[in-house]
Design brief:
Blueprint lengths: L3 E5 L3 E8 L14 E5 L1 H11 L5 E4 L3 H13 L5 E2 L7 E8 L5 E5 L7 H14 L5 E4 L11 H11 L3 E5 L2 H10 L3 E7 H8 L6 H13 L3 E7 L5 E4 L4 E5 L11 H14 L4 H16 L9 H8 L3 E4 L1
Parallel strand pairs: 1-4, 1-8, 2-6, 4-5, 8-9, 9-10, 10-11
Antiparallel strand pairs: 2-3, 6-7, 11-12, 12-13, 13-14
Helix pairs in contact: 1-8, 8-9, 9-10
Length: about 325
Amino acid sequence: MTDIITVTANPALDLSTEAQAVIPDRKLRCTAPLIHPGGGGVNISRAVAGLGGTSRALVAYGGTTGDELVARIRAEGLTPEPLGVTHPTRQSISVRDRATGLQYRFMLPGPDWTEADATAARAAILAAVTEGALVIPSGSLPPGLPVDFFLDLAPALARRGARMIIDTSGPALERAAEARAGLYVLRMDTVEAEELSGRTLNSLDDMAALAEKLRAAQAAEIVMIAAGAQGTVIASPDWRGLTRPPVVIPHSKIGAGDSFVAAFAMSIARGEDAVTACCWGTAAAASAVQEEGTRLCQRGDTERFFTRVERTAL
């Protein structure tokens, strides 16, 4: 089975809690927090494990928060591998307003990286990559790390037959879209797609047209746009369309994207086609939004939802 390697340059210790109401200029009495290890790549590896798979998690961590992060990752049966960068790990917090059901997410920026940090991380990643691996850098970039950092790794990975899956945003997404770096998968959500295109995407057809345009421009072999409860739009060499999840009652959107990528990667690693993999990802995302706080997809729900995902050509 193909190796799955996740890379988290800017992890966080995630705290999630609830308050009766989120009101300015008041002391807000919150519930006892749920605490989980966080960061895109960390969450993807956690979700892979929860779905019964295996992966390698490369993580930059340091300080007392980093120690707790690693302890919690290990408590979930994973063995994080250091990226050779030991700046103190950041924290993040999400607060759910019980009165409205809205969730507020506060993300700290993380430590500043130096050129030496980037060099150390690059060496650690290349040393870890195996022939044909799926390499998944995910999550925000720490300040000081160039937006091209992962794209610049793509040629070296390609020489080893490795494929890169990138789920990113902001300037890093813009560069990924225009770089023609030989990516296997480029994924974004609707807001990020609108920012990238500079216009409102009023329909699923608009999203599909953008995904196909990016694919034709060689941004990636497969381009996907997450369309919330409607599902995921995918443009692949063989098919363009929507994978629609069953209707579920959402509780938290945290971790839905990471759950998607985890299930998608596991399917590809098993040798399944990209559209089937997208259906698995859609099922995992539907499972994740039902969970509280930063909990990820559940295996039983994901397997059950997979049988109910609909495929519609666009």
